[in-house]
Structures are given as structure tokens and as C-alpha cells.
Design brief:
alpha+beta; six-stranded mixed beta sheet; 17% strand; globular
Length: 457
């Protein structure tokens, strides 16, 4: 069977010039979706197994389930981790399992000679219920002790989600969820979130969608236990306007963010907010933007280069399946809270002022460049296509450029006004020992006062 598939693929190093990529989707009787993409260079293949199950799906008792899954990527039973790792390594390939707020994704790049072996291994590792080993629990106790002695601050991007969604699961932090749950809770997450109807298997670099689909269907016969899993219902995340203050012993400076309700992936304004985010840009004390990547952005020109207390600044743009966050943030020394807040409010207000044609066209060019960079590798494009099926109902990534080209300045200004005239969330993070160093915290306006300052004409 494998020889026939490879023969059908046209196993060759020859580049098929001007051969258009052909994308196809099938749905198996179990509800599993199969996505394939035929490419111009069939020698190199990528596979991705994606579950719509991320940090937002961890219940309080399941905290750390995805971290544990990642730590047991090669584990099936107590003693087979090394065997699974070595069997993969012998092919010259490396499996990787990543996760974020909404997805868990296994991926691997390989040559087609290793097709059958890689499919066997990745299906076994992704579909079999995992057990937390004794060795992992012992090693984790050492990890916890090291982290207690030298704590690391929660990344600002994760604090932003906590501020925008408060106590909702969407605010779950990867940094704070690096723990091991009990085995019953770990198994519960796998049984109720890693399910057939929540799964897409993607393959790029293939020549026959039908033969690949049939091959996967036969392989799935060996995983009957997987088909007993039942998906639990999920709640929609809701943006919550509020004033969010966090203190941390691991943080030596202050971060301030003003956040607004953004949009989900399928929303028509997604591309417009992406372009606005490029207008704002991102800068920090050690990287103020290279040519074409941010040195002309507003965070560099108006904040980093003009206001001494600003050590970092940038836009906030986090879209999800059913919600989103948009805004701006600044960071600097603890004793500059008030000027940091004031310059942030003023820069957000500046978004309401009509922009030049040059700035608008530059932001569209940067948007297209970032899209090209992020889709340059076949593996990254496959991952984007598979997640697009969940996010937007289509794997197509080529329409990104068309969507950017169709945006005009009037639409940008209309979107800005719509977003900025909604109730915001104000986020502030402090170093909690500041009081012992003679530093006092200056009060800044709450989210209601901030909304008035931004929208006053």
C-alpha cells in the first residue's frame, strides 16, 4: 500500500513549476476532518494533528493538563518514552507538540520514505490517553523549588488576557499553569477535549487526498478507545471592562495597558485591526524597530524617541475564535506611572486623527510582509491552514493579501472610532516591594475615567 501511495505521489526531487496548490477537506464518519494540500515540491512532507483544545478549556481542577501533555509528548506508558523518542529520531525527524489559548498541535516534517512510520508514531502519541509518570512528578518537585527561589514574571501578553477576561478561562496563563494535576483530572481533560469531532489531521506535500484519507481511516482502527471520548460544551468568552491591578515580586518596572474589545477571527474588521496594529507598531529599549519593521511606527516615533520614561511601547492585538482584544501598552520605571499613563492616553487619542496616505500605505505593506514571512515555511502554512478551518471555516490563506488590499483609509478611521468608543479595561502591573524602597504608587484614572479622557472631543 505504501509503495503505491509513494508511486502515486510522484516520489521525485523535481520541482513542478507553476503547479497550483490544491487543498481538499474530507470528513470521516467519526467526525474527524482530513485536510491535505498538494504542493509543487512533493519530496518534503509535513503533518499536523490539531485539537481545538487550549488553555481556555482547562477547568480549575485540570490546571496544568496541557503542560503535562507537553511534558509527556513521547509517553504512552510508564517506561516507553525512550523507545518512542528513539524510533522517531532514527528517521531524522523530530516531533513537536505546542499549545496556546485555543489549540493543541502535534507536527512533524519528514521525507516520504518515512511516511508510514511517522503516521504510526504521531497517531499513537496524539490519540492515546497519557499517564503522568512518577519520574515526571519527582523532577517537577525540583522544578518548583527552583522557581520558588528565582520566580519569573508572568509575560505581559498573558496578564493582558487576565485583565480583559478577569476570572474567565480565556485568561488562563501558560506561565501560571506549569503544574501537574492529579491523574483523574488529567485523564478527564483528554477524554472530554481531545475528541474526534474536535480534531483535524492536516498533511502538506501529498499527491492523492483520497489515498491518504483511506490510509488514515485504516490506521484509526487501532485506536478504538479514542472514539469513546465525548466533547464537553464550551462557554463563549466575554470581554469585561474593568480596572485590573497586579503586583509581582519578579517584576522591577511597571506596565500599563488600555484595552478594548476586539474581534474574532471571522469578523470583517479583523484585517483592519491588523493594519491599525502595524500603524502602532512595537518598540523596546533594546529594539526600537529595524528598517521596514517598525522604525516609522507610532510607538517608536511618538513614544520611544520622544518620551524619556517610556522604555517599551506597542500595540495589543489578540484575536480568538469567539472574541478578541485590541489596545496599546507602555512600560517604564516604577516612579513614572502618571506620565506613562498620560502619554498612553494621548497616543490612543491620536489614532482618531486622520493619518497620511504614506503612513496608511506603509502599514498595509508591512501587513503583507508579515503575512508572507509567517507563511514562508510549508509547516507554518499547514498549521495556519488547519487552524483556519476552526477559526474561519476555510483553510485558504491566499485571500489574506486580497483582504489587505481592499481596505481603505475611511474604513480604518471608522473601525478606530467604533473600537475606541467602547468601554475599556485599564491594566497596571507593579513591583509589589516598591513601598519598601520609598516609592509611592501614583493613582491613575480607572477604566470609566479613562474612557471619558479618550472619547472627549
Amino acid at each position: 500500500m505504501i509503495k503505491n501511495i509513494l508511486k502515486t505521489y510522484g516520489y521525485s526531487l523535481k520541482f513542478q513549476q507553476n503547479r497550483p496548490a490544491i487543498q481538499q477537506i474530507s470528513v470521516l464518519p467519526s467526525g474527524i476532518r482530513i485536510f491535505t494540500e498538494q504542493t509543487s515540491f512533493p519530496f518534503h512532507s509535513d503533518i499536523g494533528i490539531c485539537f481545538r483544545a487550549g488553555l481556555r478549556n482547562e477547568l480549575p481542577k485540570e490546571k496544568g493538563a496541557l503542560f503535562s501533555l507537553n511534558q509527556h509528548m513521547y509517553h504512552i506508558s510508564e517506561n516507553d518514552c525512550l523507545d518512542n523518542f528513539e524510533s522517531t529520531l532514527r528517521t531524522g525527524c523530530m516531533l513537536e507538540q505546542i499549545y496556546d489559548q485555543e489549540f493543541t498541535y502535534w507536527k512533524c516534517s519528514f521525507i516520504q520514505e518515512d511516511f508510514a512510520h511517522i503516521i504510526d508514531v504521531i497517531l499513537k502519541l496524539a490519540l492515546t490517553n497519557k499517564v503522568i509518570s512518577k519520574e515526571t512528578r519527582e523532577q517537577f518537585r525540583f522544578f518548583q523549588e527552583q522557581n520558588r527561589l528565582a520566580p519569573k514574571p508572568t509575560p505581559v501578553e498573558e496578564v493582558i488576557r487576565q485583565a480583559a477576561f478577569k476570572d474567565q478561562p480565556m485568561g488562563n496563563s501558560k506561565h501560571q499553569h506549569k503544574i501537574l494535576p492529579d491523574q483523574q483530572s488529567f485523564s478527564s481533560f483528554q477524554q472530554e477535549m481531545l475528541t474526534p469531532e474536535n480534531l483535524i489531521i492536516g498533511y502538506s506535500g501529498i499527491w492523492s487526498h483520497e489515498q491518504f484519507r483511506d490510509f488514515i481511516e485504516r490506521k484509526l482502527v487501532d485506536h478504538q478507545q479514542f472514539f469513546q471520548r465525548q466533547l464537553r460544551k464550551q462557554k463563549k468568552a466575554v470581554f469585561v471592562p474593568n480596572t485590573f491591578v497586579e503586583t509581582s515580586s519578579a517584576k522591577q518596572d511597571v506596565d500599563i495597558a488600555i484595552l478594548f474589545e476586539g474581534v474574532e477571527f471571522s469578523h470583517p474588521d479583523l484585517t483592519k485591526l491588523h493594519i491599525i496594529n502595524q500603524i502602532i507598531g512595537s518598540s523596546s529599549s533594546w529594539s526600537s524597530g529595524g528598517p521596514g519593521k517598525g522604525m516609522r511606527s507610532r510607538s517608536t516615533l511618538n513614544l520611544m524617541q520622544k518620551i524619556a520614561c517610556v522604555e517599551q511601547a506597542g500595540g495589543v492585538f489578540q484575536p480568538f475564535i469567539d472574541c478578541g482584544i485590541f489596545g496599546m501598552r507602555v512600560g517604564g520605571p516604577q516612579n513614572t506611572v502618571k506620565p506613562l499613563y498620560e502619554c498612553l492616553v494621548q497616543e490612543i487619542r491620536n489614532l482618531l486623527i486622520p493619518m497620511s496616505d504614506e503612513e496608511f500605505e506603509r502599514s498595509k505593506n508591512i501587513s503583507n510582509t508579515l503575512i508572507q514571512i509567517n507563511l514562508e515555511k510549508q509547516a507554518d502554512k499547514l498549521e495556519e491552514s488547519v487552524k483556519n478551518i476552526f477559526n474561519r471555516g476555510t483553510p485558504n490563506t491566499q485571500d489574506y493579501f486580497k483582504q489587505v488590499s481592499q481596505v481603505n483609509k475611511d474604513q480604518i478611521h471608522e473601525t478606530i472610532r467604533r473600537v475606541l468608543f467602547t468601554p475599556p479595561t485599564v491594566m497596571v502591573t507593579y513591583y509589589y516591594l516598591a513601598q519598601y524602597y520609598g516609592q509611592t504608587r501614583e493613582r491613575i484614572p480607572d477604566h470609566k475615567e479613562t474612557s471619558k479622557l479618550i472619547t472627549q472631543i
